[in-house]
Amino acid sequence: MNGYLEIVMVVVGFLIIAVGANRISLYFPKIKLPIITGLLFIGILSGPYVLNLLPKSSIEKLGFVNEVSLAFIAFAAGAELFLKELKGRMKSIKWMTFGQLVFTFSISVSFVLLVSERIQFLSEMSFEYQLAIALLIGTVFVTRSPVSAIAVINEMRAKGPFTQMAIGVTVIKDVLVIILFTICFAVADALISKIPFDIWLVVILFGELCLSVLLGFALGYLLNVILAIRLYTQIKAVVIVLTGYSVYLLASLVHHKSIEWFGFDLYIEPLLICILGSFVVVNFGKNRREFNRIIELVVPSIYVLFYTLTGASVKIDILQNVWSIALLFFVVRLGSMAIGAFIGGTLGGDPLRYNRISWMPFVTQAGVALGLVSVVSAKYPGWGDEFATILIAVIVLNEIFGPPLFKWSILLVGESHKQRELQHENKVQKAFIFGLEGQSLALARQLSDHDWKVKLVTRDLEKSKLEYHGVDVIHVPEYNLEELQKANAHKVDALILLNKDKENLMVCELAYEHFGTRDIVVRVHDRSFIKKFHELGALIVEPSTVMVSLMDHLVRSPVATSLLLGMEENQDTVDIEMQNSELHGVAIRDIQMPTDLIILATKRNQNTLISTGFTRLRLGDVLTVVGSIDSIDKLRLKLENTDTPDFKKIRFAGKTISFRRRQIKPDTDLPG
Fold it and tell me: What is the pTM of this model?
């Protein structure tokens, strides 16, 4: 009983430290360092070598926290491997993954063996030990962090073939590297245990791998059953966390019972089982969105616990002696990745300008790499401490330098929409508001808050010279074609007409005949003008009825109306045009998008469709989306992608039309 009480007290104490680490780490981005680095740093301070808030004995008792975290980190990595979104760039992804795995791994292993005599904890070991450790180090060097990659892509609003290749390779490589680790870990164990290599060893290794894969698929179907049960999401999250931990308990049971029953150690890899289980859920289950929602809910807390505990486990006394080796390993990893990425990109047919910098997106490491290090350290406590200390130092360096390098590569290939918006490259939406009054000023400020570039148009010269607190006002003497073209009214995306009906009709006719303006919104006073504006394709607001209709909807459906009007904090409703040719023909249900978004309708060829999960997207579709502002930005980034080579834009009648290039055979019969 006293033993259980002691564990409870240790866990409570660690949770208090983790909460503090979470709060303090939020300040690290202000000094251009990742939050993960902050968590590791606070963990080191709390560990036995600095403040001793977490003594060595406590860290040993918290081993189960490490296993719970690793299982869920594997779930998060597997959830990113959604095959339907990767099909468009599979050739490039395939060869880049090949280059990264084969060349980065081979060069790293060869280098470690070459300098093993100069590394203190390796120099006195036999060649078998050195080869085993070199294989494990090479495996860790190949790992990458999908979470960090996605964070950089969202921050830079990056989209395009280079970005798609980077995220595709990252998520696929995390699955393959776990398989590689399973094989290398088994081979290393055989080398260290001095088990002779024969046909039976190969059969056992192959059997262990097949058993892990089989259990991974079984876990996936079990997770689908759990997700299908009608329970609160929070309860399902707890059950899934415990299910992941049970995989580690099963692996430990198999390890001990196999020696007792068969006379040899049967090893199944929990990380591989969990990552395959997650892969099955997102690709072959009906509850993918709820599973992603649970991961979004749980992963932040898991990361805080895992990185804080990992930091506390770092041996500072060893780090003082091996920092130069860690720095050397960091440089070697960068060099091996550059070689592997260049060869992989060349085989995949990527342009030279991509291949020169294609290693930059793959520098950052985080959860999976630290997880592999902790597995090795726990298995071999003799030399595992020095192994873990060196590689954790390398991972921290990669975490510091990786995100800036990835951002730099995105800027170099021109796929940063953040940069394009600063350069005003046709990405800022523009609107002209005709009529200078209180409502027009309020509307201009509200549109500006949503990143529109707005100008008010007035015929009153004196009023146009006054200041209006950040709202641009321009003077147009007459509403005729010449004056409106001088004011660049033909280049805007929307016209809002708030003047008298005759003046509004004059501008609307000019825009219809000569500008082809995408959206024209008119405030109508006299109902006799409504038919004329309708014929010109304008959207009509009638003050005499709009207030009654609005209040009617607020009474009958207050929540929906508040969302549509943007009255809910951090919620918005927008139209997004589908321009990503890679998603052409993909059903809405098969798109990885934030779980708090709802697609209300899809406008196609001037027809409005009520969207369902089975609605297949087409180029040029306009989707009406409601949800949080951050999630809307993520979906916009995914859909508004026209940078692929087979996608073409033209201007026709003042509007942008997008189409896919098609190869027409000479013997094709064309109509007419």
Answer: 0.59
Token readout for 575 is 């139209």
- CA-derived radius of gyration, the chain: 30
**8 Å CB contact between 191 and 126:** no
Count the alpha carbons within 13 Å of 132 in the hemisphere toward its beta carbon: 22
pLDDT tens digits for range 469-490: 778 888 888 888 888 888 888 8
Structure tokens at 282: 């997102």
Q: Are 77 and 70 in contact (CB under 8 A)?
A: no
Highest mean pLDDT among 103-107, 197-201, 238-242: 238-242
CA distances from 532 to 490, 585, 644 (A): 21, 38, 41
- Dihedral sign of CA atoms 162, 164, 167, 170 in order: negative
Rounded to 10°, the helix 63-79/288-313 angle is 140
Six token digits for residue 223? 């997770």
d(CA 432, CA 444) in angstroms, rounded, equals: 9
Q: Which two tokens stand for residue 481?
A: 């074609």
Residue 424: count of CB within 10 angstroms of its CB: 10
User: In this structure, which amino acid lies at residue 79?
Assistant: A
Q: In what order do the strands lie in the sheet with 452-458?
A: 472-475, 452-458, 429-434, 494-497, 519-523, 539-541
pLDDT of residue 658: 41
Q: Residue 263 — φ and ψ, nearest 5°? A: 85, 5
Residue type for position 245: Y
Query: What residue type is assigned to position 69 of the chain?
Result: S
Q: How many CB atoms lie within 10 A of CB 210?
A: 10
Q: Are 215 and 266 in contact (CB under 8 A)?
A: no
Distance in angstroms (rounded) separating the CA atoms of residues 450 and 575: 13
> Which DSSP letter does residue 528 get?
G
CA 501, CA 252: separation in Å to the nearest integer? 79
Burial of 225 (0-12, 13-18, 19+ CB in 10 A): exposed
Residue with token string 């720095």? 327
Whether the Cβ atoms of residue 438 and residue 471 lie closer than 8 Å to each other? no
* Residues ≥6 apart with Cβ < 8 Å to 434: 457, 458, 479, 495, 496, 497, 498, 499, 503, 504, 507
